[in-house]
Design a protein that fits this description.
globular
Length: about 375
């Protein structure tokens, strides 16, 4: 949902300031390297207020220093994405927007701020405010004739407008935005940019349905079909196993929601096969697809097939890492959690004891 995390700003931080990492650790009174370390810590940490600390440090440099912009935007995204602190995120976005508008009302970096804040407003049902920001973002991109930017993609702005106009009951405008979105996708020249854009759009429409339970059935189906269409397109251009595995899992979930159980199962099986093939290098693909596939099987009371699927998974992990390895102990724990989630407590407890036995022998739980 949030484009900045893998967007241009954090790439800039990593590349431009990477050389500073070789410097000795300095006191807080030495702002430049300290600010850099805070930003890099925020990029890699799963929790903490590193970006907010970076904002506090950057304020000492003055409002015209680009580090304040980088820190404000990162803090805003972090607040919304991981903390669920929308009011704080809105505050950071508005501060950053004010700084950038002082440079110029059509400054290119405003687009990302507008897009991210518009998504917060849409989720909060503040549709008119969301529309205004998205229209401004699109106008800036059109002014600069920028068709290749991925922070966000133009098609993603149009996709969000498609959603907002649907929220507002303006179905003709929603359809118009969808048509423009499809045309903008055709402007992307590389398979990587197309795959990433299609993944973004698929996530956008799938999350919209998941987060708006009140949508009428016909509208849910429309947006799920759009999500599935872009998921299939992403699979054509995706090159990395992680991306393919994630997209297969999502496509399976979308087909399941659409009631196409046969197609859903096919996607889940392909994702599981890929995960097991790539087990040594990217084990998470297998575990995440196992969880999704097992959920699907449990929903149809196919517990015996869950047993068979998990046995295949555990056998592959044992073959790859050994049955006395931490990976095998964690795999047993993953299977245990799945049974517990679906209220098969005896089986879950049995697997949890096996997991603990393996990890205890390694001296770490």
């Amino acid at each position: 949902m949030w484009s900045l995390i893998q967007g241009k700003r954090l790439k800039l931080i990593v590349t431009f300031f990477a050389g500073m990492l070789q410097l000795p650790v300095l006191a807080e009174s030495a702002p430049p390297p300290y600010w850099t370390r805070l930003m890099l810590a925020g990029k890699h940490a799963k929790q903490g207020n590193w970006y907010e600390q970076a904002v506090n440090v950057a304020e000492k440099f003055g409002e015209e220093d680009p580090r304040l912009h980088l820190a404000l935007h990162a803090a805003a995204v972090e607040s919304a994405l991981h903390g669920g602190r929308n009011r704080q995120a809105e505050m950071f976005f508005k501060r950053d927007i004010a700084l950038l508008e002082n440079i110029g009302p059509d400054f290119p970096d405003l687009v990302s701020d507008f897009f991210e804040l518009a998504q917060i407003y849409e989720a909060e049902r503040r549709y008119l405010e969301s529309e205004r920001l998205l229209v401004r973002a699109l106008a800036i991109r059109r002014k600069w004739e920028d068709v290749q930017s991925d922070d966000p993609f133009n098609a993603a702005i149009l996709g969000e407008l498609c959603i907002v106009y649907n929220d507002l009951g303006q179905t003709s405008k929603s359809s118009e935005m969808h048509a423009q979105m499809v045309e903008d996708c055709k402007q992307l020249r590389t398979s990587q940019s197309r795959a990433t854009c299609f993944q973004t759009l698929s996530n956008l429409f799938h999350n919209y349905v998941c987060n708006h339970k009140e949508l009428p059935k016909q509208q849910k189906r429309r947006f799920l079909q759009m999500a599935l269409e872009f998921s299939k397109l992403a699979l054509i251009d995706a090159k990395h196993a992680v991306d393919i595995g994630n997209e297969l899992r999502k496509a399976g979930a979308i087909c399941w929601a659409l009631g196409d159980l046969k197609q859903s199962e096919q996607f889940f099986r392909e994702g599981m096969d890929l995960g097991l093939d790539q087990l040594e290098t990217i084990p998470d693909v297998a575990s995440w697809n196992l969880i999704a596939f097992d959920d699907f099987l449990f929903a149809q009371h196919r517990e015996r097939e869950v047993e068979q699927l998990q046995a295949r998974y555990l056998q592959a992990v044992a073959k790859t890492f050994g049955n006395a390895s931490r990976a095998y102990g964690n795999a047993l724990g993953c299977c245990a959690d799945i049974w517990w989630t679906h209220k098969f407590f005896d089986r879950g407890q049995q697997l949890r004891l096996q997991s603990n036995a393996v990890l205890d022998r390694l001296g770490r739980r």
